[in-house]
Amino acid sequence: MKIKYYGTRGSIPTPGPTTVKYGGNTSCVSIKSGEDYIILDAGSGLRQLGLDLMQKGFFEGKGKCSFFFSHVHWDHIQGIPFFLPAYIKGNNFNLYGTPNVHTTLEDVMAHQQHYLNFPVEFKEMPATFNFCDLKDGETVTIGDTTITNKKLNHPGGVFAYRVEQGGKSMVYATDTEHYSVLDWRLVDLCKEADLLIYDCNFTPEEYRDKRRIGWGHSTYEEGIKIVKEAGVKQFHLFHHDPLHSDDFLEEEILKPSQKLFKNSHLAKEGWEFEI
Ligand SMILES: [Zn+2]
Ligand SMILES: [Zn+2]
Is the Cβ–Cβ distance between 9 and 19 less than 8 Å? Predict the structure, then answer.
């Protein structure tokens, strides 16, 4: 399974000299599936992925890929208006996600591109978009890949996804809060996975500040509890806080994480790897 990080930051794009190494773009991860792509979240990292896809069949309007949205907070959808393949007729996109409390995925996309906020409305984009609302626990098969979701803890709701392909498996669990007990829904989803990409927005010390409880985020310490319980082989720290510089991530998050679980790595924008 070939995976590439296009955006690893949480909350808001954070460019600048202190985030050059691990990246400032918000959540976007691509997985190759045959000739197609599966895209996990459409944060600002999607812009670069769109440029890369234009080098392939998307320039001629022959591209096809599937988006799976963890949820629709801004940092997970804001790349769509700047996704160049969406402006070419013939390209075809399936958008999978959870209907939010009051609205559908399609409405959320339309609202994001309200004329007052962006000059091109979503329905004016020439590519074809097919919306697919998922139920909790549903499995979708796309070519050689299966994607199973599980609803976790986050304001407004969030899905984690387990992606399986050619005997390999990865779980993408961003924007999830652990609270005081182990989240057995996530342990089940992660069983024997080759990789867990997990929300490590806070350090354990930051999370102990009671004001952050209920924000919907987690720590490497809690992620590693899941890794050990579920027998996961590799752990990637994801959704870096905008306040955390490259140095801070290495010293205060990666080092202590590797002490607890050696095969821990910081998700890094532009990093392409195979599991
Ligand atoms: Zn987020
Ligand atoms: Zn969120």
Answer: yes
Q: Compute, in angstroms, the gap from residue 12 CA to the centroid of ligand 1.
A: 8
Rounded Cα distance, 186 and 171, in Å: 9
H helix intervals, 220-254: 220-230, 246-248
Domains along the sequence of the chain with CATH: 2-274 (3.60.15.10)
Per-residue pLDDT of the chain (275 residues; tens, 9 = 90+): 999 999 999 999 999 999 999 999 999 999 999 888 999 999 999 999 999 999 999 999 999 999 999 999 999 999 999 999 999 999 999 999 976 667 889 999 999 999 999 999 999 999 999 999 899 999 999 999 999 999 999 998 999 999 999 999 999 999 999 988 899 999 999 999 999 999 999 999 999 988 898 999 999 999 999 999 999 999 999 999 999 999 999 999 999 999 999 999 999 999 999 99
CA of 61 to the centre of ligand 2 (A): 32
CA 73 to ligand 2 center in whole angstroms: 5
Tell me if the pTM is above 0.90: yes
Span from the CA of 273 to the centroid of ligand 2 (angstroms): 26
Three-state SS for 106? helix
